[in-house]
Design brief:
Blueprint: E1 7-13, H1 20-28, E2 37-43, H2 50-60, E3 64-68, H3 75-85, E4 90-93, E5 98-100, H4 104-115, E6 119-122, E7 125-126, H5 131-140, H6 143-146, E8 158-159, E9 164-169, H7 170-176, H8 187-197, E10 202-204, E11 210-212, H9 218-239, H10 249-262, H11 270-289, H12 296-324
Parallel strand pairs: 1-2, 1-4, 2-3, 6-10, 7-11
Antiparallel strand pairs: 4-9, 5-11, 6-9, 8-10
Length: 349
């Protein structure tokens, strides 16, 4: 009987004492054979009890290894460090702020083997803890909140442009390289775009279940989507195109709206244009927000422009910034495994 493939789980962390133990225990409790998986945590020099918790759990279960990423702290460096230290045929990148179903690993391996995909993942299922997150989850269930992205729908399945959070065949990373360590955001979509451009396939499986917790306030949401837009702009300038037009839509809305306000001959269109936007988002806020409660409708209505405008402005300033001062990529390579499948040891600081 052929043994199941060895799986490596790569996780970046920094000051995650509130979340790291629950996340690691959910991964340790997978139904995949314990002797066929490892968990590599690249920590950016946490100042809280994160490393202490990881050390304690590593003593309980030898599948966990703590790797020191304090020199860089950026999560792309942490993921690359863990990947380079890994032994698995499949490498599963994970997020600390997420909950993984007990069959998460086994369903991913099944998806890889069934489809022949080079990258695979599940839908990005949002889960709420606070009132704002409940309203945000409602907004994210709408096409106006996610732009129709397949990876946001738990019922979608098939080959797509991107998945959450991203798992890979080792062979495709040996071919296209690892994460771009010059990318602060959008490094996951950029890597998956390189895979597609190299002829690889990205598969979204509805059987792969992972939940994540979205931002907890308007301020944090706006900051997140501004950074998303900035990262998308850099990716567009690096590759000259996106696999799909979806990331450009908020940018086009912002540019279009600004043009209407600034160009005198077009200013007469402002009431119609902005009134239509308000009506469409308002009706959608009623549709999705009412499922949470009447209180959520105005919150969802405000969330839509927060995401759209933040992302659009972020992309606009990113296009200007990276055109005037380009930020070339730095993509590390992944060397083929040694014949014995071993990984070198990394000393901890």
């Amino acid at each position: 009987m052929t043994a199941l493939p060895f799986v490596s789980i790569a996780m970046p962390s920094y000051n995650e004492e509130l979340y790291i133990e629950d996340c690691l225990r959910s991964l340790l409790g997978q139904d995949y054979p314990a002797d066929r998986m490892e968990i590599l945590v690249g920590d950016g020099g946490s100042q809280d009890k994160t490393r202490e918790i990881i050390d304690r759990l590593a003593k309980e279960d030898g599948r966990i290894r703590l790797l020191d990423n304090s020199k860089h702290r950026i999560q792309s460096y942490a993921m690359n460090l863990a990947i380079k230290e890994s032994r698995g045929e499949f490498i599963l990148v994970t997020d600390v702020h997420a909950e993984y179903a007990p069959n998460y690993v086994s369903k991913l391996v099944e998806a890889f083997q069934r489809t022949g995909a080079d990258c695979a993942g599940g839908a990005q299922r949002a889960k709420a803890q606070t009132w704002f997150q409940k309203a945000l989850c409602a907004a994210l269930s709408s096409p106006l909140g996610v732009g129709g992205a397949p990876y946001r729908s738990p019922d979608k399945e098939g080959f797509v442009d991107t998945v959450f959070p991203g798992s890979f065949r080792r062979s495709i990373l040996e071919k296209v390289g690892l994460y771009d360590v010059k990318a602060v955001t959008n490094e996951d979509a950029e890597l998956q775009q390189r895979i597609l451009q190299a002829g690889g396939k990205v598969f979204l499986s509805k059987d792969v279940v992972v939940h994540y917790y979205p931002r907890k306030s308007f301020r944090l949401l706006a900051k997140q989507y501004f950074k998303y837009g900035d990262g998308r702009a850099r990716t567009l300038l690096l590759h000259g195109r996106f696999p799909v037009i979806r990331p450009l839509i908020p940018f086009l809305f912002v540019v279009g709206g600004a043009t209407i306000l600034i160009v005198p001959p077009l200013q007469g269109l402002a009431p119609l244009a902005f009134g239509t936007y308000a009506a469409v988002t308002g009706l959608e806020a009623i549709r999705v927000g009412s499922k949470v409660g009447l209180w959520a409708i105005p919150v969802v209505w405000a969330i839509f422009p927060t995401m759209h405008v933040s992302h659009g402005i972020g992309m606009l300033q990113g296009l200007v910034k990276y055109t005037l001062k380009p930020k070339p990529p730095l993509i590390e390579t992944l060397e083929p495994r040694t014949t014995n499948g071993g990984a070198r040891e990394t000393a901890l600081a």
